[in-house]
Design goal:
mainly alpha; 3 strands; protease; 3-stranded mixed beta sheet; Neurolysin, domain 3; globular
Length: about 500
């Protein structure tokens, strides 16, 4: 784990403060460490020991710390050993270089700069998927998906997405022609970056992020990474003319950070102290960003301080106008700034395109036009540039193919978990209005964070909420909040 987190630290530095010219050597550093970690994790002697332990713990409670540790480590070993070390090193080298090239291409608004890097990453991930899928009935893409959401399938995701798409399209149509519309221009005024930076630290601390065990920095694409049991790094970005970017980017990444800080430190690096899936991870980030951060109750507590921080920009904006503005529903180009109703349409587009790239039915050269066409057909808007289109997300450059669907799974779980917490804790809105967020955080720690990988993601949802994961809670939450705001019933 020490070698792995050392590589993670180098990658964090690469995306925050590393000189541009150091990129090539940094890729060599990280790929060397990743290769060393892979060799240790796939050693035959290690696998033999795990096989014996699996047999020894076969009669134990499968959700106990010891049994889960043995089971999940054996699962990881069985999967990792299918990849030769050279492939791991080459993939690490390609993704570090790919992220650097993506960042430069996005700033230059030039997809051609990124084309070859992306092609290399996709080829490598396709090979990895093929190796993982060998001797199974899963496709290479499903094998890649399994890295982020164990046991998920394309068919189950499509069924889930279809059950969500219809009510979302209906809700968006009702809102589009609603009698009331927000004035989101109040969020497009000149908001000093220094003030945003201080405010972001304030709200991250308010919801429970422990700055004695973590820190907040800035980068081109927000993320969260864990460098040690008490070293959680969250990163956001700020735009002087769009206030929500910093606020909700910070709350989103703080949600990830709270999950990491809520795990049991004594099990750090082992399954009981590791997140169960990225869908569950995203449920935590989206819950704090949306169910909490976009609630009227949150701003009842924070809006006076918000106006003071951003004065005179918000002096003439009431709390109701501000709350309506941060809940604006309108098709937009950028996923990380998309509203709650249209957000999942962004995910569905990426899910389809990345699957086609791995399958080979979509070439890298055709990707920009495929992206633009899908945005035009699905959201009614066509990206005017690559920077606001195919180059907006870091994921593919980093080799995170199969990651995108977990955002929607996280949205579904966030609504379901929030409803369950409210049913047990009482009126959360009143607690938020008083600035009390600890009860919700404590509930999440007990029902999600502290279990690590002792339960699967679906088991955690079922255990915490009493129901299987479905679209019902999310659709109900969006309808209850948005239709009254827009003057619809």
């Amino acid at each position: 784990m020490v070698l792995q987190t050392t590589a993670d630290t180098l990658e964090w530095d690469e995306r925050t403060g590393m000189p541009v010219g150091a990129g090539s050597y940094r890729a060599t550093q990280v790929s060397t460490l990743r290769g060393m970690v892979h060799e240790l994790r796939t050693a035959e002697s290690y696998g033999d020991d795990l096989c014996q332990l699996v047999e020894a713990f076969s009669d134990d409670d499968p959700h106990s710390d010891s049994a889960a540790t043995v089971r999940e480590l054996h699962r990881d070993w069985s999967r990792d050993r299918k990849l030769p070390t050279d492939l791991v090193r080459r993939t690490s080298q390609a993704t570090i270089g790919g992220q650097q090239m993506w960042d430069a291409a996005r700033k230059a608004d030039d997809f051609s700069m990124f084309r070859d890097s992306l092609s290399e990453v996709v080829d490598l991930k396709r090979e990895i998927g093929q190796r993982w899928a060998a001797d199974s009935d899963r496709s290479p893409y499903e094998a890649l998906l399994d890295e982020y959401e164990p046991n998920a399938s394309v068919a189950s995701l499509q069924t889930m997405f279809d059950s969500l798409r219809v009510p979302l399209v209906d809700l968006i149509a009702k809102i589009k022609d609603a009698p009331r519309q927000p004035d989101y221009s109040v969020l497009q005024r000149d908001f000093p970056i220094d003030a945003q930076r201080k405010f972001s630290h304030r709200i991250a601390s308010l919801v429970g992020f422990d700055f004695d065990r973590g820190r907040l920095d800035e980068t081109s694409h927000p993320f969260c990474t864990t460098l040690g049991p008490s070293d959680i790094r969250i990163l956001t970005r700020f735009e002087s003319d769009w206030l929500p970017s910093g606020i909700f980017g910070t709350l989103h990444e703080a949600g990830h950070g709270l999950y990491e800080q809520g795990m049991r430190e004594e099990w750090f690096g082992l399954p009981p102290g590791s997140y169960v899936s990225l869908g569950m991870h995203e449920s935590q980030s989206r819950l704090w960003e949306n169910q909490v951060g976009r609630s009227h109750a949150f701003w009842r507590h924070m809006y006076g301080e918000t106006q003071t921080t951003f004065s005179p920009q918000l002096d003439d904006v009431s709390i109701d106008e501000f709350h309506f503005a941060v809940n604006t529903i309108r098709p937009s180009l950028i996923r990380v700034e998309a509203d709650e109703a249209t957000y999942n349409l962004h995910i569905i587009i990426r899910f389809d395109l990345e699957r086609q790239m791995i399958e080979g039915s979509l070439s890298i050269d055709d990707l920009p036009e495929a992206w633009n066409s899908r945005y035009e057909s699905d959201l009614g808007i066509r990206p005017p540039s690559a920077a606001d289109g195919v180059l907006q997300d870091v994921h593919w450059s980093a080799g995170l193919i199969g990651y995108f669907p977990t955002y929607t799974l996280g949205n579904l779980a966030s609504a379901q978990l929030f409803d369950a917490a409210a049913a047990e804790l009482g009126d959360l809105d009143e607690a938020f209005a008083r600035g009390e967020f600890a009860p919700l955080l404590d509930w999440l720690v007990q029902n999600v964070h502290r279990h690590g990988r002792c339960f699967s993601g679906s088991e955690l949802v079922r255990q915490a909420t009493g129901s299987e994961l479905s679209a019902d809670a999310l659709v109900g939450y969006l309808q209850r909040k948005l239709l009254p705001l827009y003057g619809r019933q």
